[in-house]
Structure prediction request, 556 residues.
Amino acid sequence: MADETANGPVLSADGTPLKRSLNKALRAQKMRALMLIAPLLIFVLVTFIAPIASMLFRSVENQIVSNTLPLTVTSLKEWDSKSGEMPDEQVYEDLFFDLFLAAEAKEHTKLGTRLNYEKTGVSSLFRQSGRKLDDIGEVYQDPLEDLNEAWEDGSVWYELMSGEGAGNDDLLESTVERFNQLTRSDSGTDIGFVPGVAITSILPKTARAYTAFAVFTVVADEDVVAEEDPWEAVYAALALDLMADGTADAISGYSGPQAELLKEAAANVDMFPQPDFRAAFLDLDEDWGDIENWTTFQTYSPRYTNGYFLNAVDLQKTPDGFEARPENQQIYILLFKRTIFMSLVITASCIILGYPVAWILANLPMRTANLLMILVLLPFWTSLLVRTSAWKVMLQQQGVINDVLVWLGMVADDGRLVMINNQFGTIVAMTHILLPFMILPMYSVMQTINPTYLRAAKSLGATNWTAFWRVYFPQSVPGIGAGSILVFILSIGYYITPEIVGGTTGTFISNRIAYHISSSLNWGLAAALGTILFAVVLILYWAYDRIVGIDNVKLG
Prediction:
């Protein structure tokens, strides 16, 4: 019995195996720790991680084209951009109905802006054409209303398209879903109208166009469908359905609401002009016959694209793959190189200027060092904009520095130095701004270096320089590493100072990112540039870790 107890599991006071009790206690401890940090974790996820992830997603997201022109994108897949011929009539017909709905939702200009990033002039093409689409539909509206005034009554249309019997819920749901994608909203399907199944099978294009009109009327305009006259696009859709093969036979056997009115229109189908949407669009704007525009539409029709990343490295997407952008448009690789080079120069300048200051602070009496530390921290109490503007005043050709040089006779009055709106001005101003971030880490590390090491080295015969270089400097390297990482990462993402004092040759890639976010609103390209910059920083960080070792970085 004693042997069995000795060989069995160790039990706690309540008879539970001790191992299980310990695991349970550890889990409870971890849960308590997680609950304590949960508010901060949620705050970081919601306010930091989620916005960044959303922004980075924009670098590949391209759903605006397929959401705005779904029918056109589908029919355009069959078009061969290398054939040298314009798309066929079906593509232009689908474009009319897609663009009409987009114009009613005021979304066509956003699509034009997106495609204008890839092909200049597309934005004005969409904007101007959106105003004239009614003219295309009126060609089919006028003959119907001349034939019978009942076609001017919105309630007649409502009865006709509602039909009798079962309703086509699938068409309504798909139309609402498309409307939500187009307007980026979330509306329900209770709009007071459901297209009839029978009328949908006879007039499919009309049912699709009228359902889109009904959804837009209720959700966007908050009006009653039966009281509103349909869009011109609905009349055009009805004319196309009436002229389609087999429609007349189907209508002859139809007995639903407004059957007689529909039969009358089918009997006079010759009143409609022959559909020619291609010619109609060319009358609106001759650029609809530009094959390069259609190639751009087709190239950027997928829901996800690598086009933003290609643009970010001075390439462009084509049907055959990618190729270099025109030489006069290649700016981003230059900006990336300039950003990295100037950030390294600024980091090196901060090391050269900050090391002696940190050494003096670390070796002075504490009382004196604390007083001098106030001078180091003083820039933090001054606005960044004020400090940058001060350098702009000092460095300009009529500024303080040039005046002093002229007064000393070192520079001729007509040969004043150009020290602003260039790389030199950016390096000087940013070195001044970031210098405290280099001094503080080095000072904190130098404070921990025991001065007796230097005295010991000198007592063994080392000179002052040898004692410093062989004993003191290696122990200060962790502070240099910490300051270098801090200054480099801050400088590579700076944009206020380069924007003010950098001119055309001293700006960073971050200035271009800020421009695309706030001015051009090309958020996709801005996100791609930011992602590449982030990747560059990670690569440099990895290289630093392999060469120096991140474990050697200390803050004292």
The chain has a mean pLDDT of 87.
